Each structure stands twice: as C-alpha cells, then as structure tokens.
Amino acid sequence: MGTILEFFTVIISINLSFFNLVYASFNVTTLHNEVFGVLLLSNNKSHMKLEIIIASTRPGRIGDQIGKWIADYAAEHSDFDVSVADLAEINLPMYDEPNLPMLGNYTKEHTKQWSKRIDAADAFIIVTPEYNYTMPPSLLNAIDFLQNEWKYKPAAFVGYGGTGAVRAIQTERLLFTNLSMMPIPIMVNLVGVYRPAIITFKPEEKHEQAAKKMLEELHKWAKALMPLHKS
Ligand SMILES: Cc1cc2nc3c(=O)[nH]c(=O)nc-3n(C[C@H](O)[C@H](O)[C@H](O)COP(=O)(O)O)c2cc1C
To answer: What is the DSSP letter of 134?
Structure first.
C-alpha cells in the first residue's frame, strides 16, 4: 500500500513539475512578446532620422521649393523625423581634405560638421535636378567628402527637370551602390518642372501619391538597414 501511495505521489509531482514548467515557459514567452512587442511598436513609430538633401545650389534655382514640399510632406505623412540639408546653405568648398575620406581623419571644421550630420541620419531623400544628363557637381562634391557616414543607409530620389532627372538619378544610383548605400527604386519624377518654365512649384495629386509610396518604401529599408549601420 505504502509503495502504491509513493508511486502516485511521484507521478503527481512529476505532472505538477511539468505543468509548472509549461506555465513558466508560457510566462517567459508572454514576457518575451511583451518586451519585443513594445520594441517593435516603438520601432514602427520610430525616431529614425530622414535627411533631405537639396542638391542644387545656384541662385534662381527651383530646387529649394521642391525640397520644402517633400520635407513638409514627409513630416506629415511618414514616421521619420525630418530635417533638410540645403547644400546652398551648407556651402561646402570644393573637396579640400588632405586625407582619404574612408579614414575619417578630417582636418576642416566644415567636414567635421557635415560628417556629424550625415552620420546621424538613417535615410536620405535626394532632391535632384539634372545637369547635362548627370548629377549636379554640388551633390557629387558633398558626397565625396565622406564615406562611412553614408554606409548601409537607404536613399530615395525626387528628381525634376525636362524628364524628371531620370538620367541624373541613374548616375546617383551608381555612385550610392559604391558607398554601400541602398538606392531605392520607387522615386518621384517631376517631369516638366524646371526653371525658367516654372516659377512657383505646385504639387499635383500624382506627385503626392508617388511621394507616399516612396516614403513607405524608404521607411521599410531604413528599418531593415538600421542594425547594420548602427553596429
Ligand atoms: C548646367 C545646366 C545643365 C542642364 N542640363 C539639363 C539636362 O541635362 N536635362 C534637363 O532636363 N534639364 C537640364 N537643365 C535645366 C534644368 O532642368 C533646370 O534649369 C532646373 O530648374 C535646374 O534645377 P535648379 O533650378 O534647382 O538648379 C540644365 C540646367 C543647367 C543650369
């Protein structure tokens, strides 16, 4: 009788331990989901930083109006924290660092400031015209100043001009892949928007639709690449 009782006691305690184990692991899973759920949620409404680079610097340009439009649109319709880097205001000289940019060993204050700004960004929108079927030299110069600061970050394009700067954007995409950036395919092409034909830029419905799609895609890439460039 004693042996039978002992036998059932052992079986019951094994079962209890088993249920405790399942319960405990359930709690751990719940906790795990809660913790990661919060992280994922906060990542969805993230504080990823979008830097909008206005490439054109010439007096009388239309690029500043387009940059303002896309910056306002992104601030209202995306989860990015938005800031605008207007190359005309930043006013970098022609590349004037004695050391190679990949070393990050900058000697000039303007390069240090530019480096800090680009390093803090998680994604870019390049507001670009087309000069002689290629990118404006002001953009190439600003990009050449740095290297690692661009790495593993996505870039989208808002192009304008006779053909929406499609040929210039092709050259920018090539340049960006060399810097281990991700040039995203969905872009905004403002066809026929150029000076002197247009004095005041007025966005149309189709421009806003394209901007919305582009921003959604840019956000996905920024989120996916964040662990790479933050590591
Ligand atoms: C040096 C130069 C070259 C240009 N080459 C092109 C070109 O290849 N394709 C084009 O569509 N427009 C071209 N344009 C016209 C520009 O699209 C137009 O002037 C546009 O407004 C330039 O942008 P911005 O005003 O912001 O500087 C050129 C303009 C300049 C100043």
So the answer is: B
Residue 191 Cα, ligand 1 centroid: separation in angstroms?
A: 12
- CATH of region 48-230, choose from 3.30.420.40, 3.40.50.1400, 3.40.640.10, 3.40.50.360: 3.40.50.360
From the CB of residue 192, how many other CB atoms can be counted at a distance below 10 Å?
12
pLDDT tens figures, 135-183: 999 999 999 999 999 999 999 999 999 999 999 999 999 999 999 999 9
Q: Is the CB of 132 under 6 A from ligand 1?
A: yes
Helical pair 63-77 and 205-230, crossing angle rounded to 10 deg: 70
Are 137 and 169 a contacting pair, CB within 8 Å?
A: no
The rounded Å distance from CA 180 to ligand 1 centre is 28
DSSP type of residue 80: S
Q: How many CB atoms lie within 10 A of CB 207?
A: 22
Flag whether the pTM goes above 0.70.
Answer: yes
